[in-house]
Specification:
Layout: H1 4-7, E1 9-11, H2 13-23, E2 25-27, H3 37-49, H4 52-56, H5 62-65, E3 67-69, E4 73-75, H6 83-100, E5 104-106, H7 114-124, E6 130-135, H8 139-151, H9 159-171, H10 173-179, E7 182-187, E8 194-200, E9 204-207, H11 214-217, H12 220-224
Parallel strand pairs: 1-5, 6-7
Antiparallel strand pairs: 2-4, 3-4, 7-8, 8-9
Domain Zeta toxin: 88-190
InterPro entries: P-loop_NTPase, Zeta_toxin_domain
GO molecular function, one term: kinase activity
């Protein structure tokens, strides 16, 4: 368990989407965002307007309808409440927190290198970065868990996206650990997660499990710590 002050503001795109769908609002004060509401509105609208992801999906119009009222309450019509807009808003919030120098934590599937770029940017700005990486031994486990979540009223993710993100995320583990001051790797294939490894400053690996899952031993991270094969 981590102390609350170590976690800081918690940024989760799924929670942002849920709030926008339910109320058409997002309380920026919950993230500890400070500053003038007009300035925040301009910065957030600018971030959405500049998003290639939103343009790709014809969602860049969301920027023009975003408003930030007094007390830093963001308003956005519910027609824009979807996973793409929420993801871009989450990135905008992270960048505001980074600019403030605030402590924060964010959750991501880490299926693209921009999250690693962000970690490196944070370190360059004087932050210490910590990575908690969780994976399973088979993407079919992830598919089944998403189906269960949907049955319980949660949001869905297409199976092909789950499979693609699974592979891309694991492929980025080595780079992510290099970008982190300290990384903790967990296997969540069973009913309880297992802490399997810790990496410090990208160059010191400590194993915490008697048996390592295949998904981990197949990574470039693990291979980079293995002795070089003898030549002929």
């Amino acid at each position: 368990m981590l102390r609350p002050e170590w976690i800081g503001a918690y940024v989760n795109a799924d929670e942002i989407e849920k709030s926008l769908r339910a109320t058409g609002t997002l309380d920026l004060a919950d993230f500890g965002l400070t500053g003038d509401a007009v300035m925040l509105e301009q910065q957030l609208r600018g971030h959405l307007a500049a998003s290639g992801l939103l343009r790709q999906h014809s969602l860049d119009g969301a920027a023009q309808t975003l408003r930030v009222a007094e007390a830093n309450l963001l308003h956005l019509p519910t027609r824009w409440a979807n996973s793409y807009v929420a993801a871009v808003l989450a990135d905008a919030v992270r960048r505001q927190l980074l600019a403030q120098g605030s402590t924060f934590t964010f959750e991501t599937v880490m299926s693209s290198s921009d999250k690693i770029d962000f970690m490196e940017e944070a370190r360059a700005s004087g932050y210490r970065t910590y990575l908690y990486f969780v994976a399973t031994d088979d993407p079919a486990i992830n598919v089944a868990r998403v189906r269960l979540r949907v049955e319980q009223g949660g949001h869905d993710v297409p199976e092909n996206k789950i499979l693609e993100r699974y592979q891309r995320s694991i492929a980025l583990l080595n780079d992510a650990c290099t970008a982190a001051n300290r990384a903790y790797v967990f296997d969540n294939s069973g009913s309880e997660h297992q802490w399997i490894a810790e990496i410090q400053e990208g160059n010191e690996l400590t194993v915490h499990a008697s048996a390592l899952p295949a998904w981990f031993t197949g990574t470039t991270l693990w291979q980079s710590f293995q002795p070089a094969a003898d030549g002929p």
